[in-house]
Design a protein that fits this description.
The structure holds two protein chains of two kinds. By secondary structure, chain A is an alpha+beta fold. Chain A has two helices and 17 strands. The termini of chain A are far apart. In chain A, a hairpin with an 8-residue loop joins strand 16 and strand 17. Chain A has helices at 3-26, 259-288; strands at 35-42, 45-47, 50-54, 58-65, 77-79, 84-85, 95-101, 106-112, 125-130, 142-146, 153-155, 158-167, 177-186, 189-199, 205-210, 218-224, 233-239. Chain B is mainly α. Helices cover 73% and strands 0% of the residues of chain B. Chain B is built from 17 helices and no strands. Chain B has helices spanning 12-24, 28-54, 69-94, 103-124, 130-137, 143-164, 167-176, 183-193, 200-233, 245-271, 280-311, 314-324, 329-348, 355-382, 397-420, 426-442, 449-452. Chain B is globular, with a radius of gyration of 23 Å. The two termini of chain B are 15 Å apart. The relative contact order of chain B is 0.17. The chains are: A alpha+beta, B mainly alpha. The interface between A and B is large, with 34 and 40 residues.
């Protein structure tokens, strides 16, 4: 084989490698692939008010504060359907970016979520996600690990729950909000009720202090909504009933919980007594009006 | 101002003539005054009709600031009602002789103020039929329901109290004016006199009923103002979440109520020519009470704001900065200096304890106390509990008209009463002279109680 032939083989191999590498890169979500869209928040509303992306694209939707007439305004933008909420922007912190993968097609509203001077005209933002788009980005898997129940700490009547959030690669996911929910019955229906939220730290660890209200065991679910980039993930743990923690959780005998029961009863008794006194006084007046028993000088 | 008092003024005949004059003679000024009040009341009814028709949207209230001038008026009128009965009952119980010319209009002030006070929450509710819901569905655990119970109780107590000590004078009017009075008046006096003939048995019975009423009306008054304060104090909201609100409101009520008595005393003295009976010394006594209550109120204000500002929780911080340096600063400082510091100073300094300046002080005190009630009610509601903007509240024309009508209604009740009954209790004055004569007979040359007071003017 000539030197030239060797060079051609190496070049061909390099080209094949580069091509394959490109294909691999195209199949994963990365910041470089993201569709970057900037929406200005002006005194007359969002500019543009409608943005379009393809399903499967990784999106970076940046909101830029560009108001002049209302310098005191501040906004938090929420994106319906994807359950995303931006950081607050104002004239000092002028931009915020929502990063997500457009997994769902359809039309979604984005709007300001806090009352501001132009609140009404900041309600009509539209994100259109075209179905069957060319984007190939997918959500990254995530996982929640709850510390074993044995590790649950008891401090008085409050327990501390620890949960760690990691990605598919086992790396911690920081600055992610975890929701803590417990199963509750209300009006004959059983459902999950949010009892608190906590944000993960650099090690992906989130912590919530919770005071159980029931004496029997209850199920707690910890949920991560995915931030638009990760899959929704959940984990659950059975909490022991408050009796399992001894008397610390049970109200003591010397509390004032009953005050709302007896305070108004006492109030009614006193008022009742006052009205009885009114009755006695008016009875005296009625007696005055009886025929006089004897004459006397007017005072 | 010096009081020109002649000895003859104390003679029962002269007194009777003077105090009965408003009942038998009606001047042009009275009709003009009454017509003006009726016009204001009618305007208020018109505004209220519009409010009932269009809903509370005609007011400046919103989903954030749910209470405005109506509830400020409610607290203000409840405050005015306090001093009248309280002072009358306390002075009667302690046997203070100088009370005699003051008791009737003190009690009347309470009844008139409480009537307006009771109306205000109904006006504030928008739909009057919803008042029924409070009675049927109201939860007894709620201080709002306590108010619905305690205000009518206090109003009933005040009416009975006024009525009891009116019985002997009603009998006098029945006998003196009966033949010449119109039929409605004759019926009124006859009913109010409850066949009073002044017998020993009747006197004892009236005394028993009156004593019991005196004893219970003071705690009822204190309880009423405590309950009014608990509407706020039992709510977890910055500016309201306070343990001292009950005594704070009671003292505030006594302060503004005493100030209102000074104002009304001046008006009666001036227009019904009662200078001989409502003397400068009476103004000074009431001014002393006003100073005491005013200083106590200043102390409570200081204690309340010092403890909040020392801890300075985040929401309290927002509230206090808006109250003292922000959008409510002008109102707060005007109310504080104009309504508390200045009136107390005017009433306390001997050189300014003249009738005109005391009247100025009393009017300022009540203007200031209305502002104070407004700055208790509105700013705390304007404070956002979530990251929203501050609530905005500005009273509308409808609210201003209804407020003016409530003050006109207050004045109208007093005005009409003064045309039907003597504004000074005749039988109590006569009783006083009788006691004085008796004491004079036992101890010749003993000075009268008013003369005994330092700086007192000999009547």
């Amino acid at each position: 084989m000539t030197t030239f032939a060797r060079v051609r083989i190496v070049l061909a191999a390099v080209l094949v490698a580069v091509s394959l590498g490109s294909l691999v890169v195209a199949g994963t979500a990365s910041a470089e692939d993201a569709v970057k869209i900037t929406v200005k928040v002006t005194d007359s509303g969002f500019e543009p008010s409608t943005v379009e992306v393809n399903q499967g694209q990784s999106v970076e939707l940046t909101f830029l504060w560009a108001q002049t007439a209302h310098p005191g305004d501040e906004h938090i933008i929420v994106l319906d359907g994807y359950k995303l909420e931006s950081e607050k922007i104002d004239r000092v912190h002028t931009s915020t970016t929502l990063k997500f993968i457009a997994t769902k097609s359809g039309t979604f509203n984005f709007a300001c979520d806090i009352e501001c001077d132009i609140h009404a005209i900041l309600q009509g933002g539209v994100l259109k996600v075209k179905a069957g788009g060319s984007g190939g980005a997918t959500l990254t898997q995530s996982k929640i690990a709850i510390d074993p129940v044995a590790d649950v700490k008891v401090k008085g009547d409050v327990i501390t729950l620890l949960a760690t959030l990691t990605g598919a690669d086992g790396q911690p996911i920081p600055k992610a909000e975890l929701m803590f929910l417990v199963e509750q019955q209300f009006a004959g229906q059983t459902g999950l009720m949010v009892v608190g939220t906590a944000e993960t730290g650099p090690a992906g660890l989130a912590q919530l202090s919770y005071r159980p209200s029931r004496t029997d065991a209850e199920k707690m679910v910890i949920r991560f909504e995915g931030l638009g980039v990760y899959d929704v993930s959940e984990a659950s743990v059975d909490l022991p009933g408050s009796q399992a923690f001894g008397t610390a959780l049970a109200p003591g005998d010397n509390t004032l919980h009953g005050i709302k029961t007896w305070a108004h009863l006492g109030f009614i008794l006193v008022i009742g007594g006052v009205w009885v006194a009114f009755g006695f006084i008016l009875f005296q007046v009625w007696k005055l009006s009886r025929p006089p028993s004897g004459g006397g000088a007017r005072p | 101002m010096t009081d020109i008092v002649t000895t003859s003024a104390n003679e029962p005949a002269a007194f009777n003539e003077r105090v009965m004059a408003p009942l038998t003679h009606t001047g042009r000024a009275f009709w003009i005054w009454t017509a003006a009040l009726l016009v204001l009341v009618a305007a208020g009814f018109g505004a209220y009709a519009k409010q009932v028709h269009d809903g509370l949207a005609v007011t400046g209230m919103s989903d954030t600031v749910i209470w405005g001038v109506y509830i400020s008026n409610f607290v203000f009128f409840s405050g005015l009602s306090m001093a009248g009965t309280f002072i009358s009952a306390i002075l009667r119980m302690t046997g203070a002789d100088w009370r005699r010319p003051l008791t009737r209009f003190s009690e009347l002030t309470t009844v008139a103020a409480l009537t307006m006070c009771a109306i205000m929450p109904a006006v504030d509710m928008g739909r009057p039929d919803r008042l029924w819901h409070l009675i049927v569905y109201g939860r007894l655990e709620s201080p709002l329901v306590w108010d619905i119970i305690v205000i009518p109780t206090y109003l009933t107590a005040s009416l009975i109290y006024l009525f009891l000590f009116l019985i002997p004078d009603s009998a006098m009017l029945r006998d003196r004016l009966g033949p010449t009075a119109s039929r409605p008046k004759r019926v009124l006096y006859s009913l109010a006199a409850v066949r009073w003939n002044g017998s020993e048995g009747q006197r004892k019975r009236l005394e028993r009923a009156g004593t019991l009423m005196m004893v219970i009306i003071i705690p009822i008054g204190v309880a009423t103002h405590s309950v009014v304060s608990w509407i706020f104090g039992m709510t977890y909201r910055s500016g309201w979440d306070s343990t001292i609100f009950a005594p704070y409101f009671v003292v505030g009520a006594l302060y503004s109520g005493t100030a209102m008595l000074i104002t009304l005393m001046y008006i009666f003295r001036r227009f019904y020519k009662l200078e001989a009976y409502l003397t400068e010394q009476h103004f000074k006594y009431l001014a002393t009470l006003m100073v005491v209550f005013g200083i106590m109120y200043l102390y409570f204000t200081f204690a309340e704001y010092l403890t909040i500002s020392y801890k300075l929780e985040s929401s309290d911080n927002f509230l206090l900065s808006e109250l003292f340096f922000g959008r409510y600063a002008v109102l707060v400082w005007t109310g504080f200096f104009g309504g508390q510091v200045l009136p107390v100073a005017l009433a306390a300094i001997p050189r300014t304890r003249t009738i005109p300046l005391l009247v100025v002080a009393s009017v300022l005190a009540n203007v200031g106390m209305w502002i104070k009630r407004f700055t208790i009610v509105v700013p705390s509601l304007s404070l956002p509990l979530l990251p929203y903007k501050w609530g905005v509240y500005t009273p509308t024309a409808a609210e201003i008209l209804i407020t003016l009508a409530s003050f006109a209604g207050f004045a109208l009740i007093i005005t009409i009463f003064t045309k039907l009954f003597p504004i000074i209790s005749v039988w109590e004055m006569e009783e006083g002279w009788a006691e004085e004569a008796e004491a004079e007979a036992e101890h010749p040359h003993r000075p009268s109680p008013l003369q005994q007071q330092p700086g007192g003017v000999a009547p």
